[in-house]
Amino acid sequence: MRYRTLGRTGLKVSILSFGGIMLDQLSQEKANETVARAIESEVNLFDVGPTYGSSQEKLGTALETFREDVILSCKTEPDKTASEVREDIEKSLNLLKTDYFDVYQLHEVTDEKSLNSSLKKGGALEAIIEAKNEGIINYIGFSAHSEWAALKLMKEFDFDTIMFPVNWNYWYNQNQGEKVIKEARKTEKGILAIKALAHRQWNSEEQKKGYNTWYKPIFDNEELAELALRFALAKDIDTAVSPGDLRMLDLGLKIVEKYSNRSFELSGAEVDRLKKYAETQGGKLYPIPK
């Protein structure tokens, strides 16, 4: 596994990280096995949140003996009040069996209302800053799915990290991603890329093959999956968070291992191939279907 520095935090993170939402569909025994296998594969960043069903509780149990060896990222909803966020923080600490978070984020800032709510007096960010001042949180971040939201958040507050889609389809078809990365790096923010192995929203007639993600992961085209993950890892990011299904984590680890001694950069022909996929098979990724 290769590692990169998570921006100005100085944290050394594995280039593929663990999307904790996948644990919600697993038994505790399977969750323990999945987390242990990820750590054996040298994955060291684990991301989770209260909206991910039973994932926090399962991850907390699975990580209990590994806590000091990993980087733990958690989150809260941006439209909550400061007191509600404090409750989220305390509950997450308890479920995850820890007394601090390496990174704590505003989660899924999608519209003006939630963005403005998170930043106002008595809003979500106020509680996160207070927790950081108390030593409960080391670094503050946010996740967003559109450039306008990410750019505005960075203008309003100097976050340490950002989480944003770095996805071939979203990049080529909706022109989303490049501006965010450039702006984030001006102040050395860490960048956690999401949806690197996502294809697009499900079509109504498609068989989901047991995948519970709101988007179709690239589970049925090995060439496209490899090009897609390499596309993300070749950008100026620090880590790519795995999709919410352990089969996709395994696929991501397989690709990363294949390129352990090679550059992720795409050749001109490979870029053309990926653009062709975007043109012929892309379709809409965001916004998230309600």
Which tags fit this structure?
290 residues; alpha/beta; TIM Barrel; 8-stranded parallel β-barrel; two-stranded antiparallel sheet; 11 helices; globular
Topology summary:
Layout lengths: L2 E3 L6 E3 L1 E4 L8 H13 L4 E3 L7 H9 L7 E6 L5 H14 L5 E9 L2 H8 L4 H10 L3 E8 L2 H10 L4 E5 L2 H7 L3 H9 L3 E5 L3 E4 L13 E3 L4 H13 L4 E3 L4 H13 L9 H14 L9
Parallel strand pairs: 3-4, 3-12, 4-5, 5-6, 6-7, 7-8, 8-9, 9-12
Antiparallel strand pairs: 1-2, 10-11
Helix pairs in contact: 1-2, 3-5, 6-8, 7-11, 9-11
Give the strand line-up of the largest sheet. Answer: 3-4-5-6-7-8-9-12
Content of β-strand: 15-25%
Could you tell me how far the N terminus lies from the C terminus, measured between alpha carbons in angstroms? 36 Å
**What's the average pLDDT?**
97
Biggest sheet character: 8 strands, parallel, barrel
Structural class of the helix and strand makeup? Answer: alpha/beta
Count of spatially separate domains: 1
Uncertain residue ranges = none
Please report the total strand number as a whole number. Answer: 12
What is the CATH homology-level superfamily? Answer: NADP-dependent oxidoreductase domain
Q: What is the helix fraction of residues, given as a range?
A: 40-55%
| CATH class designation | Alpha Beta
CATH architecture: Alpha-Beta Barrel
Q: Please compute the radius of gyration using only Cα atoms.
A: 18 Å
Count of alpha and pi helical runs: 11
Order of helices and strands: EEEHEHEHEHHEHEHHEEEHEHH
Task: State the CATH topology.
Answer: TIM Barrel
